[in-house]
UniProtKB/TrEMBL annotation:
<dbReference type="InterPro" id="IPR005762">
    <property type="entry name" value="MurD"/>
</dbReference>
<protein>
    <recommendedName>
        <fullName>UDP-N-acetylmuramoylalanine--D-glutamate ligase</fullName>
        <ecNumber>6.3.2.9</ecNumber>
    </recommendedName>
</protein>
<dbReference type="Pfam" id="PF08245">
    <property type="entry name" value="Mur_ligase_M"/>
</dbReference>
<dbReference type="InterPro" id="IPR036565">
    <property type="entry name" value="Mur-like_cat_sf"/>
</dbReference>
<dbReference type="Pfam" id="PF21377">
    <property type="entry name" value="MurD_N"/>
</dbReference>
<keyword id="KW-0963">Cytoplasm</keyword>
<dbReference type="InterPro" id="IPR013221">
    <property type="entry name" value="Mur_ligase_cen"/>
</dbReference>
<dbReference type="GO" id="GO:0008764">
    <property type="term" value="F:UDP-N-acetylmuramoylalanine-D-glutamate ligase activity"/>
</dbReference>
<keyword id="KW-0436">Ligase</keyword>
<keyword id="KW-0131">Cell cycle</keyword>
<keyword id="KW-0132">Cell division</keyword>
<keyword id="KW-0547">Nucleotide-binding</keyword>
<comment type="function">
    <text>Cell wall formation. Catalyzes the addition of glutamate to the nucleotide precursor UDP-N-acetylmuramoyl-L-alanine (UMA).</text>
</comment>
<keyword id="KW-0961">Cell wall biogenesis/degradation</keyword>
<dbReference type="InterPro" id="IPR036615">
    <property type="entry name" value="Mur_ligase_C_dom_sf"/>
</dbReference>
<dbReference type="GO" id="GO:0071555">
    <property type="term" value="P:cell wall organization"/>
</dbReference>
<feature type="binding site">
    <location>
        <begin position="109"/>
        <end position="115"/>
    </location>
    <ligand>
        <name>ATP</name>
    </ligand>
</feature>
C-alpha cells in the first residue's frame, strides 16, 4: 500500500486525506500548527492518522508521495529533505487531478480569480451542466473529486498551488492578469512569480485553450518570449481582436471562429472596468465548453458577485457602504477606486506586502475625500497620502474605523473598505475583516 503524507491539516489537506483514503493509500496528516476542531472531527470520523504542533520526521520521510499545503514554502528544511530523498512533493490540485477525467477550467491571476471562477460556474450551472466549483474557493478540489462525480470543474488556483504541479492540465486555462504579489515567496523576483502563474498552461496541448488579458503588458511580453502550445483566446477592453473578446460600441463582443455573441455592457450585473474583463473571460470559457448564447447573456445579467469583493453592504443616510475586504494588494484596490463614482471615504491598511502606493495617487487625488487607516502600523500610508487628502485618521479597530467614517461621510458619499493589505495584524483573515466591517455598519 502506497503511503501518502499530507503536510497541513486545513481544507486542502483534509480533502486530500479523504481522497487518498478512498483510493487505497495509507494516509498520515501532519500539521506544525494546531488543526481546527472541524477538521480533526473529519479526520477522526475517517480513522485517519494525524498529528499537530509537530512534524515527526520518521513518520514523514517514509512517504511514497507528499502533498503539501500551499501555505508551506519550498524552502522549509523538511521539504528540502523530502526532495533530496527523491520523494515527490505535489500540490492538492495535482493529486486530485489524477482521479478525475472531467473537463477542467483552471483560473489564476493576481486579481479577479474569485469573481471569474464564480461567474464561470454560474453560467455553466445555468445551462444545466453538472459542474463543481473548488480550489481556493469553497471545498477543496480533492474533497470534491472524492465525494461526487462532475462533468466539469471550475477551479480557482493560486500560484502556490501551481508550483506543486507535475502533470495537471486544465482544458481551459484563464489568466486574469499579473501584478506583483506574494513576492516574498519568489525571492522578491517578479519574473519568478510570472513564471509560476504561467505554469497553468505548462502541460496544455494544441487541443486546449489559454484565455488571457491582452491589455496586460506582463502577459503579452511573457507570451512573446515563451509561446504556449494551447490555442490562445485573448480579451481586451482597449483594442478590437480577430478572435477572443473585446469591447465595441458599449457591447462586449465574443468572437470564436466565425461565431459571434454580443452583450450590451448596460445589462451586466457586475460594475467597473475590471469586471468587464472578468465577464469576458468567463463568457469565453463558457462558449468554449459549448454553452448556449442566451444562457451566457442571462447569467452575466443575473449574477450576484462575490462576498467581500466590492460588495454593497448598506445605504445609511444616503451614504453607500462597500465591503472590498478581499482587496489584499494595491492592484485590487486600484480596481475598486477606479470604479467609484461618488466622493469616497477610503478605509485602508493592514499587513503591507511590500506595497508601492504611487500607482494609486491619481485615483486618490480624483476620488478620495478622506482616508481612514486601519492597521497596527500605518506609517507607509500616512507617508504616501498624508499631503494628498484633506483628512487622514489613524484607527486600530474596525468599529472605530466605521464610526469615524460615519462622522466624516456626507450625503451622496461612498465609504469604501479596500485595504490593499493582508489582514493578519487585526483580523483572522480577509473574511473576518469584511464581516466585522458589515457588523459595525449594522451597529451604527
Amino acid at each position: 500500500m502506497a503511503r501518502l503524507v499530507i503536510l497541513g491539516g486545513g481544507e486542502s489537506g483534509v480533502g486530500t486525506a479523504i481522497l487518498g483514503l478512498r483510493k487505497g493509500y495509507e494516509v498520515f496528516v501532519s500539521d506544525k500548527g494546531e488543526i481546527k476542531r472541524e477538521y480533526k472531527n473529519v479526520l477522526e470520523h475517517y480513522g485517519i492518522d494525524w498529528e499537530e504542533k509537530n512534524h515527526s520526521k520518521e513518520k514523514i520521510l517514509n512517504a511514497d508521495v507528499v502533498m503539501k499545503s500551499p501555505g508551506i514554502p519550498d524552502t522549509v528544511s523538511l521539504i528540502v529533505d523530502l526532495v533530496d530523498k527523491g520523494i515527490p512533493v505535489i500540490s492538492e490540485i495535482e493529486f486530485a487531478s489524477l482521479f478525475t477525467d472531467a473537463r477542467i477550467i483552471g483560473i489564476t491571476g493576481s486579481n479577479g480569480k474569485t469573481t471569474t471562477t464564480m461567474l464561470t460556474h454560474h453560467i455553466l450551472k445555468g445551462d444545466g451542466l453538472n459542474v463543481g466549483m473548488a480550489g481556493n474557493i469553497g471545498d477543496s478540489f480533492a474533497k470534491m473529486v472524492a465525494e461526487k462525480v462532475c462533468e466539469c470543474y471550475v477551479l480557482e488556483i493560486s500560484s502556490f498551488q501551481l508550483d506543486g504541479i507535475v502533470d495537471f492540465k486544465p482544458h481551459i486555462a484563464i489568466l486574469t492578469n499579473i501584478t506583483p504579489d506574494h513576492l516574498d515567496r519568489y525571492d522578491y523576483k517578479f519574473e519568478n512569480y510570472v513564471a509560476s502563474k504561467f505554469r497553468i498552461a505548462k502541460n496544455q496541448t494544441d487541443g486546449d485553450f489559454l484565455i488571457y488579458d491582452a491589455d496586460d503588458e506582463v502577459i503579452e511580453s511573457w507570451l512573446a518570449k515563451h509561446p504556449v502550445k494551447s490555442i490562445v483566446m485573448p480579451f481586451s477592453i482597449q483594442k478590437e481582436l480577430e478572435q477572443g473578446a473585446f469591447l465595441k460600441d458599449n457591447e462586449i463582443v465574443i468572437k470564436i471562429n466565425n461565431e459571434i455573441i454580443k452583450m450590451k455592457t448596460s445589462t451586466l450585473a457586475l460594475e467597473g472596468k475590471h469586471n468587464l474583463k472578468n465577464t469576458m473571460a468567463a463568457s469565453l470559457a463558457a462558449k468554449l465548453v459549448g454553452i448556449r448564447k442566451q444562457t451566457i447573456r442571462d447569467c452575466v445579467a443575473n449574477f450576484q458577485g462575490a462576498e467581500h469583493r466590492l460588495e454593497k453592504v448598506l445605504k445609511i443616510q444616503h451614504v453607500q457602504y462597500i465591503n472590498d475586504s478581499k482587496a489584499t494588494n494595491v492592484n485590487a484596490t486600484y480596481f475598486a477606486l477606479d470604479s467609484m463614482s461618488a466622493p469616497t471615504v477610503w478605509i485602508v491598511g493592514g499587513v503591507d506586502k511590500g506595497n508601492n502606493y504611487k500607482e494609486l495617487m491619481p485615483l486618490v487625488r480624483e476620488k478620495v475625500k478622506a482616508i481612514i487607516c486601519l492597521g497596527t502600523d500605518n506609517s507607509k500610508i500616512v507617508d504616501a497620502f498624508g499631503n494628498v487628502v484633506d483628512l487622514l485618521v489613524e484607527t486600530y479597530a474596525m468599529e472605530e474605523a466605521v464610526k469615524v467614517a460615519y462622522k466624516i461621510a456626507e450625503r451622496g458619499d461612498t465609504v469604501l473598505l479596500s485595504p490593499a493589505c493582508a489582514s493578519f495584524d487585526l483580523f483572522k483573515n480577509y473574511e473576518d475583516r469584511g464581516n466585522q466591517f458589515k457588523e459595525a455598519i449594522k451597529n451604527l
